[in-house]
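Narrative progress, year one. The postdoctoral researcher (J.K.) led the effort to move from monomer predictions toward full complexes, under supervision of the PI. The following entry was the first complex the group processed end to end, covering 367 residues in total.
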Amino acid sequence: MDIQPTRRSQSLVAIPAYNEAATIRTVVDRVRTDLPECDVLVVNDGSRDRTAAVLSGSGVLLANHLCNLGYGRAIQTAVLYATRGEYQQLITLDADGQHDPAQIRPLLAEFDRGEWDILIGSRYVARKRYDGVPVGRRLGMQLFSQLVGLTAGRRIYDTTSGLKVIGRRTFAALADWHFIDFHAEALVYLMRLGFRIGEFPITMDERRHGRSMYSALSHVKYPLKTVLMLVLGVVQASVTRRRAS
Amino acid sequence: MTAGGVLLGAAIGLVLLLWVANLIRHDRLYIGYGVIFVVGTLAAIVVLIVPSLLDAVTRGSIALLPVASLSIVPLALFTFLMVYVFAQITILSNRVTRLTQELAIRNTRQEPDAGARAADER
């Protein structure tokens, strides 16, 4: 289906939101002020609060999932939308207000140099350390950063950042592969396919409203799922490359 | 357990692991289900190939639940059946996911821009 009539820009800012009524309007208004030339898409991932209602009159594109599919699938919906709308780049950021939209422009400027297929807004690449991060989370970040380095040949220091610029070249791969949260497992898969993924230093605020998408149980399941998916991503990338050649 | 039994158990575990991994890779088994089977199967293989662990688990299981060793066979079959059932659930779930994404994309609406309208009116 062609959705080009709604497209005004080459760049689409996508904000996946699940129960983010407290923050989403502020985030959207700031993005529209800071990046007036970009289209803004909110993927409302089956929110049970007033997330969709507070966006009334905001001027954004609103895509509603009828039920909650999870962060990864919300990102994938944005990728599919960007593909059909023939956008050249997709910028993702979190709906909880932790990312400062003012940091998107320098990120875009770096991306426009053409050296990257995906550029990640990274909290840790400048210092290459995880100072101030709680111990459990720090261990996880280090583990996945090292795993990406081992399996893809280049370390990514912030594998869980939600602020990314995604170039059109990667859209097809992202639409096809069933990544979990677009973290280490997706990055390794894309890097093994030959896409260039880089990091650009940003800062991030603490979450003030709502809850993290990770429950206590998911702190156990997340690393297991991600490691397994990462290994399978390496296998799948090899199969895909062999078929392509 | 005899050496032959250990080898057979480990072989069945490896077949299960490969099957589960292949299903996950082809998006026919949700990773959240798959990881439970993978961890469970790996744990069972480790118990099988480490003699002291196997002894401890055997003693414990006989003390708690004295059943014939043949009961392992239906347990193994049941595990394979569970993987099959979860794969079917995943296939249905994927259809719902794709439908939900498609509906969201087709029904994407442009919210009116209240700020711009107010500025125009001024």
